[in-house]
Design a protein that fits this description.
The protein is mainly β and 155 residues long. 0% of the residues lie in helices and 48% in strands. The chain has strands spanning 10-15, 27-28, 39-43, 47-51, 57-62, 66-74, 89-99, 107-122, 126-135, 144-147. Strand 4 and strand 5 form a beta hairpin. The chain starts with 9 loop residues before the first strand and ends in an 8-residue tail after the last strand.
Amino acid sequence: MAQLSWGKLSIEFGKCGTNGAAPEVWTKLAYDPVENSTKLTPTKGEKKEAKVEGGEVEAVKYAKNTYVFEFEVRAVQGRTKPIEDADGVVEGEYAFRLTPENPDCEGFLIERAIVSLEETYDTAEGKKWKYTADVLKPVSGAQVKSYKPAVEPAE
């Protein structure tokens, strides 16, 4: 049976160092995200067409995709915001690691992102904190990389 990278997940985050350096400390999100709120959404890169007389396309080139990672956390009594903000603005850059319920399945790593926060409220769900991370170009490689947690050696 095929194993999918779905189900209850683990999100870790850390504040990036100078010039997009990897976080020195990773913090595991202490609360479970609101069901079905955790999403990584790509936006397809802009399509450029080279046309010749008559309108036929001689060549096509795409710009790179962009990505947005988002999740929501309920503002339950006694909880604090996982990442602090000032009216929705979060200072600095953050990195994120997502591990699916089955850690043998592929998660993802975002090395650099700008984070914003929206506080929402409705009578069915109560108050929630919606975090949105706009993914930035990393120091090297892809904007979103595959990720699996390191396996602890057996003693």
